[in-house]
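User: Modeling request: complex.
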Amino acid sequence: MNKKPIATELRLAIVLVPLMAALTILSPRFLTLDNLTNVIWSVCFIGILSSGAIYPRITGGIDLSLGSMAALSGIVVDLFMNRMGIAWIPAILMTVVIGALVGLFNGFIVAKIKIPAFVVTMAAKTYLYGIALVVSQGAMLAILEPKPFILISTGRFLGLPNPIYIMVALVIASQFLLRRTAFGRQVMAVGSNEVAARLSGVDPDRVRLISYTISGGTSAVGGVILASLTQQVFAAAASGIELDVMTALVIGGTSAVGGRGSVVGALIGAIMVAFIINGLNLLNVPNLYQPIAIGTVIILALLLNEGYLVPKRRTLSRA
Amino acid sequence: MSSNGNGADLLLECRSITKSYSGHVVLDGVDFSIRRGEVHALVGENGAGKSTLIKIITGATGRDSGEMVYDGTVVPMDHQRRDAEALGIAVIFQELSLIPGMTVAQNIFLGKEPLRPLTRLIDVRRMNSQAQELIDRYEFPLKPTDIIDDISIAQRQLVEILKALSGKASLMIMDEPTSSLTKTEVEMLFKIIALLKSEGISVLYISHRMEEVYALSDRVTVLRDGRLVKVLDKGEISPEEIIRLMIGHKLEEKAVQHELSPKGGAVVLEVRGLTSLGKFEDLSFDLHEGEVLGIGGLVGSGRTELVRALYGADPYDAGTIRFLGTEWIPSVKKSIENGIGFIPEERRLQGILATQSITRNIGIPNLDRIAPRGIVNVKEEDRRAARGIEMLNVKPPRPEQLVGNLSGGNQQKVVLAKWLVRDLKLIFIDEPTVGIDIGAKEEIYEHIRALSARGVSVILVSSDLPELTRLSDRVIVLRRGRFFREFRECVLTGEKILRAASGIREGDDE
Amino acid sequence: MSHHAVRRLILIGLMLALSALITLINPVFLTAGNLLKLLQEAAQTGIIAVGFTFVMITAGIDMSIGGVVAVTSMVCINFLHYTKVPIPILVFLSLFVGALTGLVNGFFITRFKLPEFIVTLATRSILSGLALVIAVKDSMGFVQNVYIQNDAYLWFGTSGLFGIYRTTMAFVILGVGAQIFLKNTRTGTNIYATGANPGAARLTGIDTDRTVIGVYMFSGICASLAAVFISSRMMTAMPELGLGSEMDVIASVVIGGTAFSGGVGDVWGTMLGSLFLALIKNGILKTGISPWIQPIAIGGIIVVTVIVDVWQKRLREHLEARAKLKRLSAERGRDAA
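Assistant: Request completed. Predicted assembly structure:
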């Protein structure tokens, strides 16, 4: 095989084991199926979003509109199914396409007009929220129909909740895209050295366009799953999820500078974040401490990534 | 041998300056001195040690050993930029030291703006009038309220000079100041240098342009391979003599010379009247199959711009290109698809994906072969990488090694490898061996020769004269973006190339 | 006329036109009462935006401002609820919160070269949690809604001369002071230099690290100051106060003409931008348009403004470059002849 990065993912996975052991010791309730299901849901959602959001990240940009897009997608799919009478499968497909198109729009502004990604996607986060408000009329809508749609998230297959399979499928697909396709190679190249990539025949604009489109699409998928699970949609759903996704990505080894990243790593990062939060819950640490924990974790992860704190073999000198 | 003045009128005196970078000796016991109120030129090829000497004088880097005395004060070993400035040593950068969005006056007084006595606010009026005083004194075509973004490069240089003068500089160091100037602007610069001299300010002038050195200098110091060759006095200065000293060889070596015998054969590339405004103009030539065409010229003569345009990396404004007989508007993608390769001038910035493995680096322009339908054939990718590593003898031969961790020579081998694993018809190579050890250099030369023998055409841009001399079948020399001279069917030496690059016209002699 | 001035005139013109339009639809808009409220709204966001402008000029970004507002307001509530600390000291302590946050932000950004965006997002997260932690809670642990009764503290939120709110006065004073500082002191020049060309700035002896830390501290202090005024006016504060104000602040600064690339912009622009934003928000309310349009409008305005700015900058550069090349090649032609 031609990969060192397996080592990163392995290293991360190995960290999970003592983490789980510690949590089990600290609270015997940790390892119950009941508790783990809660964790699993959170991991699924963040995992699905991360599998797409990693692309803009590797190219050196970012997608901050994930949460708003997910919320809007839930509202839109409900609109299609329950107010326009469209069958649930086409409704979902259309919703994902809309998500992809919004992503494409963002990508266009970033790639062709060359506006910094965080401005574009942060503004998108805002106006998508507004659009979600308008479409939902500011209300929290309950989704009780159609039954197959609800089963997407609440149903089980072989004992495990469906979302797990969806998430795993997306993660595998995304990891494959990143590691085994020409496009994936180009994404890494653009993130590593855009000038050199261009001279080697890569079109960075096109790569970015596609990256943001993917991110928009996965946000929509996540939103649909969320709607199916909670059976309610509202404009402020999934607000703030961007931070969790970013944490997962950073822990998973996606470099802040670009050119390095792993979807599986992000997944493991998501698991770690979920464990930490769940662990804090179980230990009866009040919810309020969670954002503090997340914030600290991000900074620690960043420092580790860039080679501070722990002397790791540095790839480049700080020149 | 050298003519140093007596102690009293020496502004700067350096004795036995030695400096090494990671074991590689860059300056070897160099003596150097500048008199008060003189224009002193420092010449030498790339790698001769000029920039290192300047860095040591300006405090940007420290010397390993040797003494330095400036204006009677002994300069300590831990001499910093701030100390140099305080002593009165000023450096004119091209554009690095000016702040866009600010006015001329603001830039001149950056960090030392005149303040109003009570409020400690910047006294803009006094700042502008003081700037105006300086401008008037030297009769510069500037206004204190001009914004840096709006003025020409020549004018920006003037602002740099004023900035230095406002700091009471006694030594003005200018590094290749004329490479972006028009003739009229160069003349103005000369007048200014004369003015500075008349005020007792010394000027240290670094340039490749012989006619300028000849016109301006009171004395010239020639460096070669980190050593002082000679200091020429006014009467001894001539472009030919300087070149001879710059190039001259150690007694043990023979001069690098090469009997040129150009190849005939099919015309691979036909260029007619190629022009890119501001970069190069009206260039025409043919490239034959298997030929190594060397492009010589000084920095700024348009060589890199030419090959980038031919490869499709930059657009051009006029002219035609025919590739293998068909009319051709190049783009990077088209070039790669059709068997054209490109090795860029700056390896770190443009050539390598430092955070990626050797395999990925070699693979990236080969995606059309490795992933014909979008999915990467890992076996094929690994095969190419292995082939590339083996062919180029990359060390360490580990495909998953991150290229950023390799030595310069091995990095360049990877850059070369990614093209050599393809079916090439033509490859552009821009400065292939900068900062690379001798061993790797020779290996790369072998590959270039092998390419040529296989029928692959090579366009080679290089400032390394022995390299250009040895490898080329034919050499064309550019000067200020225009065609100056072609060398074919003669005995070529590096000296001849440099003389042509410097604008010295002469016949085809032996 | 410089394009900055043109831009500003267009902005003012737009504001006048919009005001006219809104008044036509609902004359209540143009009453003193409404306008004074509008100005106060502008001031609340504007005070934060002034500090944010400094950070943007150095080509940085401070996403933690919302968190600073939240924590500062909680600190004030705590002191007001549990102690009898004199108000001036309380205010000083509040500003200290912002300064400390800025110091931490600046430290991680300069010392470890971590990306500004992510670092300040992380500190925001930590601060939002801290706000919850220190919030005054009742016996069951739920966050309590504390009503501020301290008159001296409430003074900040009241109106003064001509009915102008003290928040607005503070905004104007801060704005004027900041602008003078930015344009007329050495440190102000250093801030521009650090943003426009940090390499050159360093060569000239400017300590860019210290400058960066300084602007982040100023940004934090401004956010804290705003928190005092906001909580005073509302006479209460919840731990979420300020979280979510980021877009408004960014919108104000962007509309005002400060670019993310650094080196350009000033406080006048930001003040105009804050005014413009408050106008839009107030207008949406007064004309009966659905309040949900607001986020769409703000997000949309940001995108449009940034795109327009980039386009016209590129257009200018393109035209200049062509002119320069023509000149250069003409001269070279003469030289060679």
